[in-house]
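pls ignore typos typing on phone
fe (ii) ion + seq
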Amino acid sequence: MFDFLKQKKQSKSFSPLVTDMHCHLLPGVDDGSSNIQETVECLRAMASVGFQKVYFTPHFQANYPNEENDIQKRFATLKKQLAAMDDGTLPEVAAVSGEYRFDPRFARRPGVDNVLTLPGKRLLCEFSLHFNDYMPIDIFAEYQKLGYTLILAHPERYPYLGIHSSEVKTMKDMGIFFQINVLSLNGFYGDTAMQKGYEYIEAGLAEYLGTDTHNMRYAKALKDTANNKKVQKIMKSHTFLNSQL
Ligand SMILES: [Fe+2]
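k done
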């Protein structure tokens, strides 16, 4: 009895973002959710912290050799299944895009490969956490020439990339956007990534936030992050571009 009174009220801290533009919830295609039940539970958690709309961004990299056509077919099937399961607790699952790895083992070529983008030809990119001598600046410039906007996922997570580095300056001078993982702000990836996450935001170098949700461990951490007072302060004092998506 009165169990509901004991439950901690879930903060909808991320409501101002409206949209999450980075998650791995297409079942069975990468290191994200393993089945549709897990996808649904993660989506419910995202809605509970304020997200109304979600884009799926499966990995495209050497370890997950996904093909764009196959990913789109899988997504269309999943959309139908989700529609049948929606009890009003799910956010809108808008579309499937991708998180494209650029490292010495893998890089999609602009104008050659059919990349899956977020609306407005926005391409979500990531680097390896390990290769520190590979900066695909030339490839990024080629994408930009073809009208793509590049968004670098979680710059705070690359141990070799300093916020005051020449690489960051170059990317910012080129007009490359940065997306910080919200879980970084609650220490999910360690103290260094947390500190860098806040630094990027405070320096005005982070235009987007993403959840990068993979599974229920991330979903639980997302709820904890939404209740973090420092994160709540950031959400009130800063504006991000997520709602444009
Ligand atoms: Fe990701």
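Residues 22, 24, 99, 153, 212 surround fe (ii) ion (CB under 6 Å). The chain has one domain: 13-239. more later
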